[in-house]
Amino acid sequence: MFVLPPPPRYPTQAAYNAAVGTGQVAPMIETNNILTSPSGPEYQFLVGEGLYVLKEDLHLATPPPHPSEAPIVNPNPLATTPPPATAGTKLSLANLDVRPLPAAFYRVTSPSSGLQQSIQEHPDESKSSSEARESSSEAGRIASSDVLLIVSNAPAFGEGNALLAPPNSKDANKRRKPKNNVTKSNSSFISRVIVHETLNKRLQDRPSDGLFAFANINRAFQWLDLSSPSKAEYLTKILFTKAHCLCHDVNLLTKSSSHIDVIMGFSTGEIIWWEPISQRYTRLNKNGIINGTPVSEIRWIPGSEHLFLAAHMDGSLVVYDKEKEDATFSADEEAGAGLQTNGEVNSDTASKGVSNSSQIQINKSVHSKNQKSNPVAVWKLSNQRINAFAFSPDHRHLAVVSEDGSLRIIDYLKEELLDLFYSYYGGLICVCWSPDGKYVLTGGQDDLISIWCPSESALIARCQGHHSWVTSVAFDPWRCDDKNYRFGSVGEDRRICLWDFSVGMLHRPKAASVHHHQRGGSVSSRLVSLQRAESSQNGYGAGEEAAEKILPHAVEPRSRTAMLPPVLSKTIDEDPLCWIDFTQDAILTSCKSGHLRTWSRPSDTSPQLDEETDSSQV
Amino acid sequence: MAGFFNKLKGAGTGISKADSNAAPKNKKEEPAPELTPLEKLLQNAGPVREDGSDKFFGLENFGNTCYCNSIVQALYYSEPFRENVVRYPPFTPSDTPDGKPRKVNVSIRAPVQANGAAGGAGKGQKPATSAQAIKQRHAVNGQALPGQPVRPEDRPDSPEYKKKQSMIRGPVLELAQENPDAYGMEECTFTGLKDIFTALIESNTRIGVLSPQRFLDIFKRDNELFRNSQHQDAHEFYGLVLNDVIANVEANAKRMQERDESRNKDGLAQSVHSALGASTALQSKAEPGTRTPGTGWVHDIFEGVLVSETRCLTCETASQRDETFLDLSIDLEEHSSVTSCLQNFSAEEMLCERNKFHCDHCGGLQEAEKRMKIKKLPKVLALHLKRFKYTEDYSRLQKLFHRVVYPYHLRMFNTTDDAADPDRMYELYAVVIHIGGNAYHGHYVSVIKTKDRGWLLFDDEMVEPVDKHFVRNFFGDKPGMACAYVLFYQEVEFDKVREEMDAEGPEEVRLASQKVDVALGTTEQPNGTATVPLSKLNTQPLPPLDEGHDAMPTLGHAQSAPGDIASTVPLPLSPVQPDQSEIHPLVAAPLPDPAAMTAADEAATIPPKSKDDKLRDKKEQKAQEKARKAAEKEQARIAEKQRFEKQAKIREAQKSEQEQLQKALQESKLLAAEDGKKRKKETADSVPEVGSYEKPSGFLNRASRGSKSMTRKSLAFLNKGGDKGDKDKEKEKEKDKASDKSDRSDKGESSSVAASSSAAAAPTEGSLQQNGGSHSPTQPQTQEKGPETAAPDKDKPDKHPLKERFSFGLGKKKSGKFLS
Question: What ranges does the record list as Basic and acidic residues composition bias (chain A) (predicted)?
Answer without folding.
Answer: 121-136
